[in-house]
Amino acid sequence: MKITLWGTRGTVPTPPLPGSSLSSLGGNTPCVAVDVDGCEPLILDGGTGLHWLGDALLSGDFARGCGLAHLLLTHTHWDHIQGIPFFPPLIVPGNRFTFYGCGSGGRSLAALLDDQMDTVYCPVPNPFSCAVGAHVEVREIGEESFQIGPVQLTARRVNHRPDTACLGYRLQHGNAVMAYLPDVEYLEEKHRHPALGLARDADLLIHDAHFTSAEYAHRRGQGHCSDGDAADLARDAGARHLLLFHHHPDRKDASGYATARTVGNPIVEAACEGARYVIADDGARRIS
């Protein structure tokens, strides 16, 4: 199992300011690609990083209109779907995409994705409601387990915002396990239960750390965790490698994350856009 981080930022993209260089953490909003032998590409979330992933995919089958991929959405807040209208393989006829996730606010996932591509907001053709470009299927899922090729997936509802349905995911191929929890907050002990299940004995856990522990005291109830919360969950779940994710737009580097300097069990790092990891028999390790 190979994992590439195409977007690690939360809330809004963070471009470099005049006179400064782009943070080593990256500027694009959440998008993670998972590649498994014998399986079509699996894409977690469709933030602005999805645009650049799309460019990379056009070097292969997706340029010829014979690509197939699966996009697993945690929820439909803008930072997790901003990249979908600008995902180049979507405009190539013959490509096929299945979107997975859950609706919110009494509206289906299909309706929410269709709405964001209304011409009032969006300048590109809408593959969700008209026969242009790729074939798109939207699959509404809840708390369930399902199979995509050789990969076993588990989705669970996690606590993010009280008015927003949000999923976390666990992906397993053979003995390799990763968990993806980019937006979550543990206001009560019961909020930790689904997250612990998804992250149990994971080789790699990608977890919300929108705030530092010092910041969180004044931000409780905003729907996100601190780096300390993420590290506690990883330890309690027995996860072996933790990536702190969904960085606050103002986060310049990892220096504010005290736990990112921890070496031990779990290994803790700040997620950096462009980083690649592999999960093998000896666990997860960064390869570039």
Mean pLDDT: 94
Strand order of the largest sheet: 6-5-4-3-2-1-14-15
E-strand count: 15
CATH topology name:
Metallo-beta-lactamase, Chain A
- What is the CA-CA span between the terminal residues? 15 Å
How many structural domains? 1
The secondary-structure class comes to alpha/beta
Q: How much helical structure, as a percent, in the residues?
A: 10-25%
Low-confidence stretches: none
Provide a descriptive summary of the structure in words.
It is a single chain. The chain is an alpha/beta fold and 288 residues long. Helix content is 14%, strand content 27%. The protein has one domain (2-286): 4-Layer Sandwich (Metallo-beta-lactamase, Chain A), CATH 3.60.15.10. Helix 1 links the parallel strand 3 (42-44) and strand 4.
Quick rundown:
The chain has 288 residues and is of the alpha/beta class.
What labels would you give this structure?
15 strands; 8-stranded mixed β-sheet; globular; 288 residues; 7-stranded mixed β-sheet; 27% strand; Metallo-beta-lactamase, Chain A; alpha/beta
Q: What is the topological layout?
A:
Blueprint: E1 2-7, E2 31-35, E3 42-44, H1 49-57, E4 68-72, E5 96-101, H2 109-116, E6 135-140, E7 144-148, E8 151-157, E9 167-173, E10 176-181, H3 192-199, E11 204-208, H4 213-216, H5 227-237, E12 241-245, E13 267-270, E14 276-280, E15 283-286
Parallel strand pairs: 3-4, 4-5, 5-6, 10-11, 11-12, 12-13
Antiparallel strand pairs: 1-2, 1-14, 2-3, 7-8, 8-9, 9-10, 14-15
